[in-house]
């Protein structure tokens, strides 16, 4: 997922490129995520970043970190503001979200269901990076990965953590037997 390549992953790729300036890194958003395994096995993709858990029979997975999702609301929303905001007492504001096949939407919906919260959608946006702009313009609230939420706050949205927190581990998926020297070098730059 291209979204996983936010924050720390961008830093990892930047560090790798400084060590290996002749290696070209190509990123693509692979949706639905169930194609990742076949793309790696068929040699179309060497290393994939993804949210976990990820069923990857015969492939190696390595967790690199955890994304935390925050509540993002329009600046003029009239709500009883709290930080952290309880998942079981969300404001009555429609949600700007991602398509159903998005791994983060699945995790968020499960967390909302576990908290007994129900929401309605105001917009489904294919481009994850555009969600914050929709919130800033008052289309609805959203649940966004922390770094994207912070960007939306720069545009005027209000942001806060959630209680309980919504977190998703992310990492890399690869076939140890098919790694190129460049792929192996990239994985070697990752912390164990």
UniProtKB/TrEMBL annotation:
CDD domains noted in UniProt: PBP2_LTTR_substrate (cd05466)
Transmembrane segment boundaries: none
GO BP annotation list: regulation of DNA-templated transcription
UniProt GO cellular component terms: cytosol
Chain ranges of the LysR substrate-binding domain: 3-190
PANTHER family in alphabetical order: HTH-TYPE TRANSCRIPTIONAL REGULATOR YBHD (PTHR30419)
Protein name per the record: LysR family transcriptional regulator
Source organism of this protein record: Rhodococcus opacus M213
């Amino acid at each position: 997922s291209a979204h996983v390549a936010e924050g720390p992953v961008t830093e990892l790729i930047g560090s790798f490129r400084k060590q290996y300036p002749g290696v070209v890194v190509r990123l693509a958003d692979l949706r639905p995520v169930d194609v990742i395994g076949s793309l790696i096995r068929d040699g179309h993709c060497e290393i994939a970043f993804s949210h976990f858990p990820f069923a990857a029979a015969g492939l190696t997975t390595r967790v690199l970190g955890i994304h935390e999702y925050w509540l993002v609301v329009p600046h003029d929303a009239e709500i009883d503001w709290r930080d952290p905001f309880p998942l079981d007492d969300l404001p009555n504001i429609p949600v700007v979200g991602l398509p159903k096949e998005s791994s983060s939407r699945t995790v968020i919906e499960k967390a909302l269901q576990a908290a007994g919260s129900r929401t309605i959608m105001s917009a489904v946006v294919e481009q994850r990076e555009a969600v914050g702009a929709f919130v800033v313009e008052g289309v609805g609230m959203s649940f966004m990965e922390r770094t994207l939420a912070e960007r939306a706050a720069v545009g005027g949205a209000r942001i806060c953590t959630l209680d309980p927190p919504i977190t998703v581990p992310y990492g890399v998926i690869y076939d140890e037997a098919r790694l190129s020297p460049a792929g192996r070098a990239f994985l070697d730059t990752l912390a164990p």
